[in-house]
Amino acid sequence: MGEETSDESRTSIDKAIEAISSLISLSHSIKSFTVKWQLIRAKLDDLYSGLAALSNLDSSGHDPSLSSLISAVLTSLTDCYDLATRCVNVTYSGKLLMQSDLDVMAASFDRHARSLSRIYSAGILSRGFAIVVSKPGGGACKEDVRFYVRDLMTRMKVGDLEMKRQALVKLNEAMEEDDRYVKIVIEGNDLVNLLVGFLDSEIGVQEESVKALFFICGFGSYKGVLVRSGVIGPLVRVLENGSSVGREASAKCLMKLTENSENAWSVSAHGGVSALLKICSCGEFSGELIASSCGVLRNLVGVEEIKRYMIEEDDTMTTFVKLIGSKEEIVQVNSIDLLLSMCAKDEQTREVLVRQGGIQELVSVLSDPNPLSSSKSKEIALRAIDNLCFGSPGCLNALMSCKFLDHLLYLLSNGEISVQESALKVTSRLCSLPEEVKRIMGDAGFMPELVKFLDAKSFDVREMASVALYCLISVPKNRKKFAQDDFNIGYILKLLDHDDGRNASSDSGSTKFLISILMSLTSCNSARRKIASSGYLKSIEKLAETEGSDAKKLVKKLSMNRFRSMLSVYMEKGKHMVSSDKEACEVCVEIECYLPSTTLQLYGEREVRVMDHHMRIKKMCIFVTQNL
After folding, report:
1. 60 band by pLDDT with thresholds 50, 70 and 90
2. Backbone angles phi, psi at 534, to 5 degrees
3. pTM
4. What are the C-alpha distances in Å from 24 to residues 104, 149, 258?
5. Which pLDDT value is given to residue 501?
6. Which candidate, 128, 150, 137, places its Cα nearest to that of 48?
7. 258 C-beta neighbours (distance < 10 Å), count
8. Average pLDDT along the chain
9. From which residue to which does any coiled coil extend (predicted)?
10. Euclidean distance between CA atoms 572 and 584, whole angstroms
11. Residue ranges per domain, the chain?
């Protein structure tokens, strides 16, 4: 028989592709021997991919050696179509014989696929011969997208290493630009398996494959597909032996796959924990890889047994504590987050952290004098201190022994807004500690800084600042010191003056906090006098009409102390000061001017009309003493 021309060969290939599609469609309607037909369909899919690649070859790229193979494939397809027809019509002579025929057919298709693969390996499909399919535009239909992905998959299956790598690059670019490509990849389970298989391939192919898997990991609903395809083990192998790019992408994939401690045991079973610990303890790797490894370990410590294993490993805690001092922000942040996860609910592990100098390292992050130092690192360090130190005496003692209050006060005063809020939260926690700590904070200068936050835009910030300040001035020494600064009391009173346009937006919650602070201050004579003489009493009385019992108590306390002081003077000097009815009348009027409107009304209802103003003063003294 003469040699086929290129056009005849292409016609045979197209005929085989069409026959495979028709046979696959027919096989889905077969109700018997379902397992056998599933196996045959899988072999037909592989053969289809290989033949589809041949249809994309330029005519000059056809090799004569393909002719006999294509002819054999067409013969097998004809025989298989006959078997499928008999299964559909149930016209076969016996089940055992049909099962045997189907096994022979599956083996035949497998042999054809392997023969085709050997021809590709010989170099028939190269970049010079392949016709490149253009990537569909943004408005392309789903079928066009699917065709493009299938073409890329074909190149990955049958191309040489460089073609595989380039096809993966194109796939990654497409998935990054349009999520539809990710969905198409997941729908074709063969492509997922192909990507997983490439993790054990040559470095360039491996790197691009793990990047593709990372794109897919970003979709939570697709992570299960990857895990079922057996991706964990190959990712761990890349982590152990891959290139720097491959390792980084592999660690990021594992971090996605282990969120909420999912698949933790699978990672551990493949040796992932040891590989991750080795990366963290070795200074040769990039900060990105170390940070991602810390992120994976943070997810894994949610499993108690894995956490115990990590802690019992030599120098594990020492390694993580050292990473806190890294010069790279992402390493600092992830290592602190890891330690926080390890120690948050474990007093024993917190004690190990203290012994290894972990608290000092956290404070050192706050004390970094570099103005460009990461605010994110400071925030996470403050969060760790907030969560770890206040529930452990050992941690708290270690914290207070390394000048933490000085650094905290500096951040409260000079930090970026996000850092200031974190520092304020820790300050609020400190203010709930015993009186000795509050006394130290008062001496250190925390109270004036807290006053600055009383007019913050955020209600939560105002609340934290108010509660912290209230706790500090509950200490008599602090209260006295606070009252010595006229600005402190004047500023609080000004915030309560709702007639001031600047404070028109003040809300009821903030007002309640400020009134509580003033109530505490009235226990100090100097503070009480400053409040009484400030000129804001009318504003406070007005608040008493709308803000409820707290404001009324404040008005009552201020009035009681002022009148008792005033009346005691009159009673001591008696008639030496008031020598006539006219002067006695003036004294009564003066006293009544200071009475709150509610008290004055009550007094007026009970007053006994007498002409003797001396008796009137006496009755007023008795009334004020009893009612204020």
Report:
1. very low
2. -80, -20
3. 0.73
4. 17, 20, 38
5. 46
6. 150
7. 24
8. 82
9. none
10. 15
11. 10-122
